Amino acid sequence: MTFTIHASHRRLAAALAAIALVSPLAACGSSSAADSADTTGDGTTVRVAYLSTANYLTTSKDDDFMKEALRPDTVEFKGPFNPTDAFTAVTSGAADATSTGTGHFIDLIAEGQPWVAFALEYYSGDSQGIVAAPDSGIESLEDLYGKKVAITTKGATGDYIVHQAFAHAGLDASKVEEVELSASNLNAAFTSGQVDAVATFDQNLAAAMVVPGAKLLVDGTQYDSLNVSIHMVSKQFAEQHPDLVRKMYQALVEESDKAQKDPSVITDAYREFGASDDLVEQIAEFDVPVIRPIDADGLAMLEQQARQYVDFGFIDSAPDLKDSVIDCSE
């Protein structure tokens, strides 16, 4: 499941680019200068800025996997945050870890921001897509030419959904009028007829799908989406505490394994966030994600999506991602 918001980060880019952060990051368990500097076990508290969406970094706050994995160090969950505030919490030094979508992570690295990703939360793509509004008369992607499609922010997940879905169908995304709306206003605009469709993901997609008369036009399984969730820490934290990053990855794997056996791990989190029964029922139909490492295959997928971002005009050139990821499978 994915969640990305691009707003405000270009304003932060200049300041963040000035932060001097050195040493390439290799495998989590590697023997490096960063490992020798790791202060694991000295009472470090890992501060997690969790989001109001049920990814595994969020749901792990209700289980003991993270707490047990990090012993004798500790974990503190702060939130729930909307994505922009979560990113600000980490970049300001108030938190160490958070989550986003792979596309937004690529955008952040392209801007020169100091983040390191350590886990992919992979899923089929059925929890992202484009939904036509009730009574819009829209039956296909091509029917959206000249119509208004709501997204959160240019360059973020909704924008990616539009461009990738249209490119895969051999259609021209520039013929659609994308309307940027905050996540909180997305559903209201959709149900009131202010927009003709919405391109979104996770609970916002489910909310659109359960509106009577709405029509799902396409989901990520149909346009080969590469956009999945990704978990990341500040680069400074990754360099100072590589062993803690490895332990966080292991805890996410355990959380993922639990959800495969009992998907209520996810739906219970949405109930806690106030989701209605209809919404939870739709969310329960989505694919249950699995945690994967950012190994050679994971990095190749990110690099392929980065090339898509260049093709779509979201970024000028694909960033070198090698020093901004950690392979925790070793």
If you had to describe this structure to a student in words, what would you say it looks like?
This protein is of the alpha/beta class. The protein has two domains: 9-15 and 22-123 and 228-324, Periplasmic binding protein-like II (D-Maltodextrin-Binding Protein, domain 2); 128-219, Periplasmic binding protein-like II (D-Maltodextrin-Binding Protein, domain 2). It is built from 14 helices and eleven strands. The chain has a five-stranded mixed sheet, with helices on both faces. The protein has a four-stranded antiparallel sheet with strand order 3-10-4-11, with helices on both faces. Strands 1-2 form a two-stranded parallel ribbon. α7 (157-168) links the parallel β6 and β7 (177-180). α12 (264-272) runs antiparallel to α13 (277-283). The longest helix is centred in the last third of the chain and has 20 residues, at 242-261. The radius of gyration is 19 Å and the shape is globular. The chain starts with 8 loop residues before the first helix and ends in a 19-residue tail after the last helix. 51% of the residues are buried. Residues 1-24 and 29-39 have low confidence and may be disordered.
